[in-house]
Amino acid sequence: MAARTLTVTLPNGETAKRRTERTYTHAVCFNNKVLSFCGSFELAQKRISSVHPECQGRLTIVPVNA
Q1: Is residue 17 a contact partner of residue 4, using CB atoms and an 8 Å limit?
Q2: pLDDT per residue as tens digits for the range 6-44
Q3: Which helix H or strand E contains 10, and what residues bound it?
Q4: Can you tell me whether residue 49 is helix, strand or coil?
Q5: Report field, pTM of the whole predicted structure over 0.90
Q6: Total domains, the chain
Q7: Which of 14, 19, 54, 59 has the most CB within a 10 Å radius?
Q8: Domain that includes residue 16, residue range
């Protein structure tokens, strides 16, 4: 499988990139930076629930750009 570059549009309008062979559909963002890439919306929600409660309100889930 060939590596490809994924892009995500962050809440502040900037874009973040990641080069990978894996399939990611969503990213969890914290303070306009990507915290992690996830393979589904449900996994992104699970990732948010694993973070300290004080930080959860500042996390957002954004889709990976096609």
Answers
A1: no
A2: 999 999 999 999 999 999 999 999 988 999 999 999 999
A3: none
A4: helix
A5: no
A6: 1
A7: 59
A8: 4-63
